[in-house]
Design brief:
With 223 residues, the chain is of the alpha/beta class. The chain contains eight helices and seven strands, in the order H-H-H-E-H-E-H-E-H-E-H-E-H-E-E. The protein has a seven-stranded mixed β-sheet, sandwiched between helices.
C-alpha cells in the first residue's frame, strides 16, 4: 500500500468510528460536486475538529473567510448556540448559491449569513458595521491573500479569540524557499505574522489523511 493510500485508509478508519452518518453534510458534498465546485472542502474529521474548537471556545460569533459549498460552515454553525451568529464570505456567486441551499437544508438559514463578493471588499464593510468581536475566525480562501485576511481577523477579534488558518503545509511546499507560487508565498507571510505579531500566540500542525499532506495553524489573540 502506498503511503498516501495508507493515509486515506486511516482517515476512513477514524471517520467510521468517530463520526455519525449525517445526511445534511453528505448532501452538501453531493450537491457541491453536482454543481461543479472544486473538491477542496475540509474532510469530515477536519470539520469535526473545527466544530470542537468552536465549542471549546464557547463561540457565539464566528467569521469564515471562504464558504465554497458551505460544508465547513455547517460544522461551525452547528457549534453555535441558538442565538449565535456566523458570517461567511464567498467570492463566487455560484458557490454561494449552493452554500445557501446546503445551509438551509441543515437548518442553519437563520444562524448563518452568506456575503458574496471579494473578501477584501466584504471585510471593510463588515468592520464598518462595528460588530461585536468574533470568537473564532476560520480562514480558508485564496491563499495569496492570507496575510491580509489575518490582518482583518485581528481587527475583528478580541483577547481570547481564535484564528484558524487552513492549508498551511501545501504538500511541504511551504518549507521550500525556492517555491514562489503566490499561494505558498501568501501562506508563508501569514505564518510569519502568526509567529511575530505581539497580539498572537500560535502553533501549526501537519496533517495527513483524506487531504493528503497539509495542515493548519492556530493563533490565540492575547492582547
Amino acid at each position: 500500500m502506498s503511503e498516501a493510500r495508507l493515509w486515506h485508509t486511516v482517515d476512513d478508519y477514524f471517520t467510521e468510528r468517530l463520526l455519525r452518518d449525517d445526511e445534511a453534510l453528505a448532501a452538501a458534498l453531493r450537491d457541491s460536486d453536482a454543481a461543479g465546485l472544486p473538491p477542496i472542502a475540509v474532510s469530515p474529521l477536519q470539520g469535526k475538529l473545527l466544530q470542537l474548537l468552536a465549542r471549546l471556545q464557547g463561540a457565539r460569533r464566528v467569521l469564515e473567510i471562504g464558504t465554497l459549498g458551505g460544508y465547513s460552515t455547517i460544522w461551525l454553525g452547528r457549534a453555535l448556540p441558538a442565538d449565535g451568529r456566523l458570517v461567511t464570505l464567498e467570492y463566487d456567486p455560484r458557490h454561494a448559491e449552493v452554500a445557501v441551499r446546503n445551509l438551509a437544508r441543515a437548518g442553519l438559514a437563520e444562524r448563518v449569513e452568506v456575503r458574496v463578493g471579494p473578501a477584501l471588499e466584504s471585510l471593510p464593510k463588515l468592520a464598518d458595521e462595528q460588530p461585536p468581536p468574533f470568537d473564532l475566525v476560520f480562514v480558508d480562501a485564496d491563499k495569496a491573500n492570507n496575510p491580509h485576511y489575518v490582518e482583518w481577523a485581528l481587527r475583528l477579534t478580541a483577547v481570547g479569540s481564535l484564528i484558524v488558518l487552513d492549508n498551511v503545509v501545501r504538500g511541504g511546499r511551504v518549507a521550500d524557499p525556492g517555491n514562489t507560487d503566490p499561494d505558498v508565498v501568501g501562506t508563508r507571510a501569514a505564518l510569519e505574522m502568526f509567529g511575530t505579531h505581539p497580539r498572537l500566540d500560535a502553533t501549526a500542525v501537519q496533517t495527513v489523511g483524506a487531504k493528503d499532506h497539509d495542515g493548519f495553524a492556530l493563533a490565540r489573540v492575547v492582547s
